[in-house]
Amino acid sequence: MYLTRFACLAILVFMASATCADEVIRFANEGSSLPISTAVEVDGLLFHSGVIPSPTNRDAASGTFEYWGGTEVQAQSVLTKVESSLQNLGYEMGDVVKMTVFLVGDPETSGRLNFQGFMAAYNRFFGESSDGKLPARSLVEVAGLVAPGMLVEIEVIAAKSN
What we know:
Blueprint: H1 2-20, E1 24-28, E2 37-42, E3 45-51, H2 65-68, H3 71-88, E4 96-103, H4 115-126, E5 136-141, E6 152-159
Parallel strand pairs: 4-5
Antiparallel strand pairs: 1-2, 2-3, 3-6, 4-6
Helix pairs in contact: 3-4
């Protein structure tokens, strides 16, 4: 009896969730062999995968501070790439409603999270010129990211402005 009720409830929940999203669009992760989408759009909400920085100096040894740069440099790189990706998908930075930032301790701040460095880059995108279109944001310190020396990864959720 319990199993039957549970099965009926599961079917109802599945049917309700299937009809809630009118349209789901998955944007391929071009140029990557990773089995993830760059972003997924559901009814005007864009869920963008995490974005990592580009190397600052490709001539430096991979994984070093010279190769990647510090938090501010990496945050600038990531936010520039987020902006470009959003534009390619028909969104803009002012459409970002939620941002999750992952920071690794920075050698410039004795291995501690470099909040000021991050904010210097962030304010270039969401400072006075943002017209008050500020996202909700979480910022967390993590032990590491996908490559040694990477200090910043950012994922965003964007919504079309009406």
